[in-house]
Design goal:
The complex is a heterodimer of chains A (708) and B (512). By secondary structure, chain A is α/β, with parallel strands linked by helices. Chain A contains 18 helices and 27 strands. Chain A folds into four domains: 107 residues, Methane Monooxygenase Hydroxylase, Chain G, domain 1 (Up-down Bundle); 177 residues, Polyphosphate kinase middle domain (polyphosphate kinase like, 2-Layer Sandwich), CATH 3.30.1840; 174 residues, 2-Layer Sandwich (Endonuclease, Chain A); 186 residues, Endonuclease, Chain A (2-Layer Sandwich), CATH 3.30.870.10. In chain A, the strands form four sheets. In chain A, strands 14, 18, 19, 20, 21, 23, 24, 25, 26 and 27 form a ten-stranded mixed β-sheet that branches. In chain A, strands 10, 11, 12, 13, 15, 16, 17 and 22 form an eight-stranded mixed β-sheet that branches. Chain A has a six-stranded mixed β-sheet with strand order 2-4-3-7-8-9, with helices on both faces. In chain A, β12, α12 and β13 form a beta-alpha-beta unit. In chain A, α1 packs parallel to α3 and α2 packs antiparallel against α3. The N and C termini of chain A lie far apart (84 Å). The relative contact order of chain A is 0.09. Chain B is built from 21 helices and 14 strands. A six-stranded mixed β-sheet of chain B has the order 8-7-6-9-11-10, with helices on both faces. Chain B is an alpha/beta fold and 512 residues long. Chain B is globular. In chain B, α15 crosses α20. In chain B, a hairpin with a 3-residue loop joins β1 and β2. Classes of the chains: A alpha/beta (708), B alpha/beta (512). At the A-B interface, α13 of A face β2, β3, α2 and α9 of B.
Chain lengths: 708, 512
Amino acid sequence: MANVNYMNPKFFVNRELSWIKFDHRILNEARDKSNPLFERIKFLAISASNLDEFFMVRIASLKDQLNAGYDKPDIAGMLPAEQLEALSVAIHELMDLQYTTLNRSILPALEDVGLTVIKRHENLSDEDARFVDKYFEENVYPVLTPMAVDSSRPFPLIRNKTLNIGALIHKKDDDKTMDFATVQVPGVLPRIVELPKKGKGTRIIFLEEIIERNIEKLFLNYTVVCAYPFRIMRNADLSIEEEEAADLLKEIEKQLKRRQWGEAIRLEVEAGIDKDLLKKIKKELQITDENIYRIDGPLDLTVFMKVYGLKGFDHLKIKPYIPVQNPAFNGHSDIFSVIRKGDVLLHHPYESFDPVVEFVRRASRDKNVLAIKQTLYRVSGNSPIIQALSEAAENGKQVTVLVELKARFDEENNINWAKMLEQAGAHVIYGLVGLKTHCKITLVVRREDDGIRRYVHLGTGNYNDITARLYTDIGLLTCKESFGEDATAVFNMLSGYSEPMFWNKLNVAPLWLKDKFLGLIARERDNAKDGKKAEIIAKMNSLCDRDIIAALYEASSAGVKIRLIVRGICCLKVGIPGVSENITVRSIVGNFLEHSRIFYFENGGNSEVYCGSADWMPRNLERRVEIMFPIEKKELKAQVIHILDCLLQDTGKAAVLNADGDYAKIDRRGKKLFIAQDYFCEEAEGISLSAKEGVNKSTRTFTPEIHK
Amino acid sequence: MSTKTFAAIDIGSFELSMKIFEFNGKNKIREIDFLSKKLDLGSDSYARGKIDFEKVEELCKTLREFKNTMESYGVEEYKAYGTSAVRESKNMDILLDRIEKSTGIKIEVLSNSEQRFLDYKSVAAKGEEFRKILEGSTAIVDIGGGSIQISLFENDTLISTQNIRIGVLRVNEILNQASVTTSRYREMCGEIAMPSLDSYKKLYVKDREIKNIIIIDDYLAPVAVRKAKEKGVDPVMSMKEYIRFLSDAENKTGTDTAKAFGIESAIVPLFIISSELVRWVATILGAEKIWTPGVRLGDGMAYEYAEKIKMFRGEHDFEKDILASAYNIASRYECGRKKCELLEKISTGLFDALKNVHGLSKRDKLYLRIAAILADVGKYVSLENFGDTGYNIVMASEIIGLSHREREIVANIVRYNVSEYDYDHEGCLGNLDGSSYIIVAKLASILRVATGLTGGYFGRVKDFKPVLDGNRFVINVTGDADLTMEKAFFESKAGFFTEVYNITPVLNIRKN
């Protein structure tokens, strides 16, 4: 055991390949017939949208590495070229499976429930064809911008992620010179068009089919030889030289425009595309064969998110869950007095995010509140939190907001909010040089009779009231002095001041968090060696930090029982003799996105529970500002442990990592179906109801009946 | 219960910091925020004698931020003190004016002794821990950017305080100029510090064994406090533990040292210098225990403010320390302790009896007591002109706890106790302002009367009892001996008193 090199690359899985497995697990939910049909199409759309992002960021990054001649092997010993090669195979397989699932399972099932997708315009009846032609003329034609390429007109910019129809055309009087033409399927129009009702069912056709059918109308003096849809993905990873950027805000605005011009890294085309047309596109986009995906079906499956939204199919969806009020707030209108009574733990989305919004809103109007400080990473479109912060600044409170401009794909959104807040009089910090601020923390400073009191919210999820209905997260509201002091220190650091002499409760990355985790894991290892009870339960989105994994291997070898709940990437291998035999990994892909990060350490019988914003990934532990906070109050700690227990008992949505690197759903023979997320919904509803009843019972007044 | 908030701003040699405190009822001081930012003013000031324009701009920017933070807590009062880097800057006055115009924050510049006294108060604010450690022989080692102040205590009383000009930034400058690499900092620190420390030991420590040292510094203490906190213990180390603690920096690169101690790489050289200075001081003092309470100037400022607004009353008697410090100076200049004590006692008695006439404060009384103790130091240099030589000695001595202005007052009292009074205050030494000069006159006149009473044959006056009787200030004394000489001496000294108070002092001698 002592001679094992736990850092050996053979003990690790490449993170990108592990991610593909995660997308497979999402796709599996689309394949799982026990899920309501419309939930299945949602999972299909999610798997597609995830893959798009994966291309734009991860594949792009690998291509950058390759182009730059970067030849360092990854955690699993793979070079960028090897990774790209393996990924190309894995992604082709994944996409094949997406379309097989669509064509063989989902579309027939939709047909059965009365939703017909007309895959090709050629299949339209005369009547339907007349309808779509009219639709084209009235709605589509006016917004199209066809572009032909010839000697005087260069190849146009094909925008990232857009769907386009490429065509080969020639002048009616010259059938020898073939030109390329393209038209973007307009994003401003709905991509699905419902055909007139015929009987009970609903029939839809995709917009690109309608355009394709009418393409000749766009090139009147030409003959269209062939027309096929295509879609490209570009390198969208912003490369900002922060040290050199005088103004980060302006630099990001500039780079955002460039995102549309990044190198093409994926080309999706219809399977039967004309050879010459493909050659033309390939040449112009400088894309190689392994990056071309020939698709048997509609391009861009994210459209199925729109299909999910079609009316009349609610019975084929999971009934939307309405988050309940945390019982601590029942019968209380003053959030500050509730927090003064004791820490409050919020478990979203089972419990409502409203108290968090209310916390900021109330603070903005409370005359005793002096200052509000908050970090914002991803906020919703019309965020009530931003509105409250604006109002607070206008009300003369000191408002300090750190808006992370580098939050990927939210950059533009965040720039807008940041400017708005600044106009309202808030002090806005546009992130930190070289670091992303990923922690979720709010501090309210209030002057009370006995002096300054600080109220703090710490969370594992973003301050986004919309995603808080879909993501599972933990939040803590507290006014403990030790947390308040640390929260103040966090904002001081975010404002450029030095670190405090010591932290009371919070652990902050990139300063000490990784060391803290390594220390906690080592403590379990030592306890196991000393014959004490030693156990780690950790829940996170991704696990790919080499040092942490090696520490886990070492702890496992020493006899520590390690149970991991990792939704996404997991570079750790289980079941390696002498290395990871005591480690289990499960991934939960459910109706809600598992997003909370929870860490449990047995600590020789004196267990410690932490929540936080950081995954066990190098980017979180080394390149981001993250916070991990302890859950100390006995009842709240028990509640968090209960959450972990339920997730570990899940037999419905959990997939377990095998020694061969695959994930398999739990074999339920002899086991009851238990879906933790469903259970949490029922449990929250039950607790909320009984708490409300409790309030009524404790009311010592009578309500007289009045004769009307 | 009313609460008050106060901000303490410290413009240090290498760092700007602000602490926000809340005072809530008696003896409840709570630190609610602490902001600090590195800004190396010391290197400019020590090496070039001036602080650069860019640094001043940065300083102003940070002060404006501090002001915003003060507003966010509804801070009612603040104090902003500049220390050695500002003090030693030739362009100090221009600098202070520019800062005030740009930020609205008025900075006061502390003399070395004021600064050290506040540092000392910051340790005393630790209360019980401080009292306990002071039970044994103890040294407070206050390591600043420009110098180290070592104050020795025995039996809870200050016995000496001395400034040695080997501060962290000054040593760093020397090492930089000599192009010494960080790996050799440890040995070189010893070479720079030891000659001064050796002399210090010979002159002030002698055979005393100082068991405990209390460290006030900006680089070692934060690390020691954090490490102690992680272990859940007090930041107290035995000498052996301290050596072990420092061993983490041995044979390590700057980056590794930064990692081992959890500090920024830029701080590593200063951390090494400070911790090595502590090692050498501890060695020459023979210390067994090192306490790093992790206090800063701001804590002392809060202590002082809380005392001022009567929301805090510390256990430690600082006046006693100031007086002890004065006695040490008197003893160094061969003034007999008994005579000093008698003069102090009589001056105090006169001062108290004149309470309704002079309108002076408790603090003014302290000046008189110090001046009484130091009244004869000038004789060490010249028996003829000892008013002026006394003035010079007082001005050249460190009296912990007195500001520069206060030291001027004391020195002038000593001077005008024997020298002819300059009626034009602009002609006095040290450019005292008008109101300070009046204090000098009032106290010097009392000291003259007291000196007259103790006369040439001190110790013969007994049962001293002054009584104010209309326009007469009757001083009843009894004595076994013939007090004719005292009477004559008294009368020669009483004229100035009459001039100041329009009251005639009368000596009423009763024989037993």
